């Protein structure tokens, strides 16, 4: 199991190297919050390509980050009770954010023009 | 075994130790932003007014500077991640470990400095 977690971090890391750096370049360097608004995102979400891009990136980035946080908890939270509590909180939080993010990307319907 | 915070400062590790510490710190930083970013993007479900108000927040100079720090964290984590993958899958590169870290730092500086200046150009006007 730990081997799969290790492998997942490497594989998702390589994919995220392109997805996250691409996202950073497009949404934070070429475009930025001065021009990004509802209209910009609604237009972007009209193409299935960007929805798929964002959904894949969301899942890989969040699972990569959650697994990283799990490693930190196992490294630094020494008391067993606190460790179990931290891990349980992490998994619940992770599930909620994964569900919320997916819901937003998959169900978004633009309003107005 | 647990390590006290002070021991991180007194333990005289080499490049690998700093790469490891920075990888953890940038990882936590990027994860924190990712969680915030999932929440702010969720505002789009409530329509233009709610989402644009949320973006207005990110237009504040403090967030714009934070965005530059975020870009640096993502870039370092990505480059150092490649270094980890190289060392993991080709253990013989361990002998060139110092050069690999120097490569990460050099590539980071070459990409990040112009990028940071470009992203901070709004401060000039």
Secondary structure layout:
The complex is a heterodimer of chains A (113) and B (125).
Chain A: H1 2-30, H2 38-44, H3 48-76, H4 80-107
Helix pairs in contact in A: 1-3, 3-4
Chain B: H1 5-10, H2 15-42, H3 48-58, H4 61-89, H5 97-119
Key descriptive features of the protein:
heterodimer; A: 113 residues; mainly alpha; 3 helical TM bundles of succinate and fumarate reductases; 4 helices; 82% helix; 0% strand; B: 125 residues; 5 helices; elongated
What does this structure look like?
The complex is a heterodimer of chains A (113) and B (125). Chain A has one domain: Fumarate reductase/succinate dehydrogenase, transmembrane subunit (3 helical TM bundles of succinate and fumarate reductases, Up-down Bundle). In chain A, 82% of the residues lie in helices and 0% in strands. Chain A contains 4 helices and no strands. Chain A has helices at 2-30, 38-44, 48-76, 80-107. In chain A, helix 1 packs across helix 3 and helix 3 (48-76) runs antiparallel to helix 4 (80-107). The model of chain A has no long low-confidence stretch (mean pLDDT 95). With 125 residues, chain B is mainly alpha-helical. The N and C termini of chain B lie far apart (52 Å). Chain B is elongated. In chain B, helix 2 (15-42) crosses helix 4 (61-89) and helix 4 (61-89) runs antiparallel to helix 5. Chain B has one domain (12-124): Up-down Bundle (3 helical TM bundles of succinate and fumarate reductases), CATH 1.20.1300. Helix content of chain B is 78%, strand content 0%. Chain B contains 5 helices and no strands. The interface between A and B is large, with 38 and 39 residues.
């Amino acid at each position: 199991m730990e081997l799969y977690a290790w492998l997942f971090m490497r594989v998702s890391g390589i994919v995220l190297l392109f997805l996250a750096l691409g996202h950073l370049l497009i949404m934070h360097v070429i475009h930025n919050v001065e021009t990004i608004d509802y209209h910009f995102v609604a237009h972007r979400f009209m193409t299935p390509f960007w929805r798929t891009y964002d959904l894949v990136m969301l899942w890989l980035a969040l699972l990569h980050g959650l697994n990283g946080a799990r490693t930190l908890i196992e490294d630094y939270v020494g008391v067993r009770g606190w460790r179990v509590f931290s891990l349980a909180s992490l998994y619940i939080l992770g599930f909620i954010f994964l569900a919320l993010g997916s819901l937003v990307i998959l169900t978004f319907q633009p309003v107005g023009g | 075994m647990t390590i006290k915070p002070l021991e991180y400062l007194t333990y005289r590790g080499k490049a690998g130790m700093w790469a490891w510490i920075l990888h953890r710190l940038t990882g936590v930083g990027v994860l924190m932003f990712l969680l915030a970013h999932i929440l702010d993007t969720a505002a789009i479900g409530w329509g233009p007014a709610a989402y644009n108000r949320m973006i207005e927040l990110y237009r504040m100079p403090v967030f714009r500077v934070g965005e530059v720090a975020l870009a640096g964290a993502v870039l370092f984590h990505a480059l150092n991640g490649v270094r980890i993958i190289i060392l993991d899958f080709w253990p013989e590169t361990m002998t060139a470990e110092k050069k690999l870290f120097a490569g990460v730092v050099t590539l980071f500086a070459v990409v990040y400095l112009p990028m940071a200046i470009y992203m901070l150009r709004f401060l000039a006007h």
